[in-house]
What we know:
The protein is an alpha/beta fold. It has helices at 8-17, 22-41, 44-47, 50-54, 103-119, 140-154, 173-187, 207-224, 242-253, 276-288, 294-299, 336-344, 360-368, 376-379, 382-396, 402-426, 433-451; strands at 59-68, 74-85, 91-97, 126-131, 163-166, 234-237, 257-258, 260-263, 266-270, 303-307, 324-326, 349-351, 372-374. The protein folds into three domains: 8-54, no CATH class; 59-190, 3-Layer(aba) Sandwich (Rossmann fold), CATH 3.40.50.10860; 210-379, NAD(P)-binding Rossmann-like Domain (Rossmann fold), CATH 3.40.50. The chain is 47% helix and 15% strand. The protein has a five-stranded mixed sheet, with helices on both faces. Strands 7-6-11-12-13 form a five-stranded parallel sheet, with helices on both faces. A three-stranded antiparallel sheet has the order 8-9-10. Residues 167-170, 211, 239-243, 263-264, 328-330, 353-355, 380, 383 line the site of NADPH dihydro-nicotinamide-adenine-dinucleotide phosphate (NDP).
Amino acid sequence: MIIHPLVAPILAEVVSANPGEPEFHQAAEEVLQTLVPILEKERKYLKEKIPQRMLVPERTIEFRVVWQTDNGEVQVNRGYRVQMNSAIGPYKGGLRFHPNVNRGVLKFLAFEQVFKNALSGLPLGGGKGGSDFDPKGKSDAEIMRFCQAFMLELERHLDHRRDIPAGDIGVGAREIGYMFGMYKKIRNEFTGVLTGKGLGWGGSLLRPEATGYGLVYFAADMLHTKGDSLKGKTCLVSGSGNVSQFAIEKLLELAAKVITFSDSDGFIYDKDGITYEKLAYLKWLKNEKRGRVSEYAEKYPSAEYHPVARNARQNLLWAIPADCAFPCATQNEILENDAMALVQNGVRLLAEGANMPTNNAAIEILQKNGVMYAPGKAANAGGVATSGLEMTQNYSGEYWTREQVDQKLQAIMRHIHDTCLAVANEFGAPGNYVIGANIGGFRRVADAMIAQGMI
Length: 455
Ligand code: NDP
């Protein structure tokens, strides 16, 4: 990809100042390229060095987490919190526990989060955190000890008006519970400092469902602009965690047919389609048994299991003919070959449930071939938006029904969708959700930063 001369020096600086952080460089490149129209039109942003400022975290915290396995072995992990930008509200963004977590991965996620939160229209800044701790194969007691050790340090950097983490890969309701318990014990106060809490202790109805449901609402709005709907569409979904499970559930509700899902070892192709009953089994398998998706093929003969080699340059899940694609696992799961296969098979829409699942070259292929493409910072914002709703309920002490939260979630997803389209139109790129999301999010944060002076 040729980098526009207006932003090339900024990107070069990012690359040289952040060595060994390819995901952060990738996210910076994707955003900077699409900001060119607004940077050309409004020179104040470059004069104030807003893009350069946004690419340096306000603060990065790195710390040691020491804990003990069930058989008494001492373990040492790295913990992080990247407090990226607080121009429009307190830092907000999830915690990820996965062995491939490092500073660069969290900086890319925090950078994306700033735009996503701004687009949601809510008063939320951006941050992200986590650890290289691998929850796979650990006992409940080990998970609890790790979460407690992690929070013992992170606690001093959080507050319900300063930084409010949530879940992400490897951090679900169980982990949020253990971290919340530790925070409460240290501070001796009960506040909404984490979102994704259990329903009986400050959580919001529909928070677990929100990212997957929001993604599907967004895709439905995209198709609606073409006079079409999800009804009867064959859909590819990747991943099998929180986002995937509820994306599948909402797709079923809207009468689409879902034929795939995956984990980090391989994918399932169920040609007959996933039913509510099969989805209930998948939820049990992943959330309670903590098993692998390969077990689904042992139970349902209509399904085939395909192992996927790590670091393969093509994932054959994306080569299965379908109408719509929803990557919901992790970053860089759709590369050039996958994008080509999607185009050849006539996929019309790709909406990202995961953060940055499609690399920049693959995005270019999709867009050049007329696939409607929605970036994660717009399409998967339903999770953080509902976390914002959880915070409002915690502050006010008033709790909403499932229907009330669902209505607000749908309204927020529509607002993001319509903002993307309006901004894309304004900058001469009709239908380009990437330009719409990046410029829309950037403008809100950039204007707040200018108003608040040189800090
Ligand atoms: P979960 O931990 O619940 O599920 C993650 C899924 O992705 C699992 O199926 C996991 O498989 C798979 N996966 C993880 N790493 C890899 C890898 N390296 N290669 C292939 N598959 C992998 O996480 P979530 O569903 O919460 O998050 C999924 C994505 O959605 C992430 O990109 C996250 O940042 C994004 N997201 C999540 C939000 C939320 O509210 N939870 C909000 C917005 C975005 P396995 O079982 O093998 O680990």
